[in-house]
């Protein structure tokens, strides 16, 4: 099943017949926190069908949750982070965190900074090397249980982070730096390891970059990442956790205004955004 956050409320679909139903007046925070989330969604599907949401009706799948992110969970990300920071002497940090017991976790966005499907993402005005990072994103309830998955775009200013690892918050957290959507795939079991994450970036109608990976390449278990996130932290309405990127453009690539970034994850759909 998939949940859509829309201007008409929360809609659920069964993935097979594309039968859409409404969850009524419940708001996003309440349904994500509900202990009977799956039962409610299934019960709604037994009710009358509603018109599928138009693209303009679909909102980012978030209420008041914080968005966090995990870094250096793929070998490709490790290599890219070492390369971008080699002149600043920070490369060994990323090599060490890749093999450390404790993962790298960092705050990414508040809900108001999150862009939905078809919205405009941004690159920093003081950055010269900016890239999108396609990431499977965990949707977690207040009890530290993974209830679903969505697509995330962790926009990054590689030159700023590469200058000094302590600049990570400035490289990662700014208006329009995070996109989520288009929906949440509800699942109480892990996704197949063969699940593919792919990205394409179009510039003036032509593909400027494309790449793909699978979640089999992620070094850490999702339960491990969630466990560390919830250590000495409470999330009253749950949280979203990006799980890292395994697709990084070559070092001579940077995003430009007008680029269209499309991220596809098996079973979830496509998150598409334009660089404002």
Overall residue-averaged pLDDT value: 93
Q: Give the termini distance in whole angstroms.
A: 32 Å
Shape: globular
Given helix and strand content, the structural type is alpha+beta
Overall number of strands = 17
CATH superfamily of the largest domain: Fumarylacetoacetase-like, C-terminal domain
Regions with pLDDT < 50 over 5+ consecutive residues? none
H/E series, N to C?
Answer: EEEHHEHHEEEEEEEHHEEEHEEE
Q: Rg, please?
A: 18 Å
Instruction: Please state the second-level CATH architecture of the largest domain.
Output: Alpha-Beta Complex
Query: What's the CATH C level of the largest domain?
Result: Alpha Beta
Tell me what portion of residues adopts beta-strand conformation: 25-35%
**Fraction of residues in helix:** 10-25%
Number of helices: 7
Number of domains: 2
Report on this model:
With 276 residues, this protein is α+β, with helices and mostly antiparallel strands. It is built from 7 helices and 17 strands. A hairpin with a 2-residue loop joins β1 (2-6) and β2 (9-13). The longest helix is centred in the first third of the chain and has 10 residues, at 75-84. The mean pLDDT is 93.
């Amino acid at each position: 099943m998939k949940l859509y956050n829309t201007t008409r409320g929360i809609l659920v679909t069964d993935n097979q017949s594309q039968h859409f139903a409404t969850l009524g007046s419940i708001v996003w925070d309440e349904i994500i926190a509900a202990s009977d989330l799956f039962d409610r969604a299934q019960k709604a599907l037994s009710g009358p069908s509603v018109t599928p949401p138009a693209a303009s009706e679909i909102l980012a799948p978030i209420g008041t949750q914080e968005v966090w992110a995990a870094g250096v969970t793929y070998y490709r990300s490790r290599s890219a982070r070492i390369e971008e920071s080699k002149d600043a002497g920070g490369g060994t940090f990323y090599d060490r965190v890749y093999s450390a017991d404790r993962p790298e976790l960092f705050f990414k966005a508040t809900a108001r900074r999150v862009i939905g499907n078809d919205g405009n993402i941004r690159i920093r005005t003081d950055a010269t090397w900016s890239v999108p990072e396609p990431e499977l994103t965990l949707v977690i309830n207040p009890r530290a249980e993974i209830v679903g998955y969505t697509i995330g775009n962790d926009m990054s200013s590689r030159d700023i982070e590469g200058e000094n690892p302590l600049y990570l918050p400035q490289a990662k957290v700014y208006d329009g730096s995070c996109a989520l959507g288009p929906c949440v795939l509800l699942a109480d079991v892990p996704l197949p390891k063969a699940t593919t994450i792919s990205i394409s970036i179009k510039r003036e109608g032509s593909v400027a970059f494309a790449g793909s990976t699978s979640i089999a390449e992620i070094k850490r278990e999702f339960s491990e990442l969630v466990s560390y996130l919830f250590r000495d932290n409470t999330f009253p309405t749950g949280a979203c956790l990006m799980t890292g990127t395994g697709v990084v453009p070559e070092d001579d690539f940077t995003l430009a205004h007008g680029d269209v970034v499309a991220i596809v994850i098996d079973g979830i759909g496509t998150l598409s955004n334009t660089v404002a």
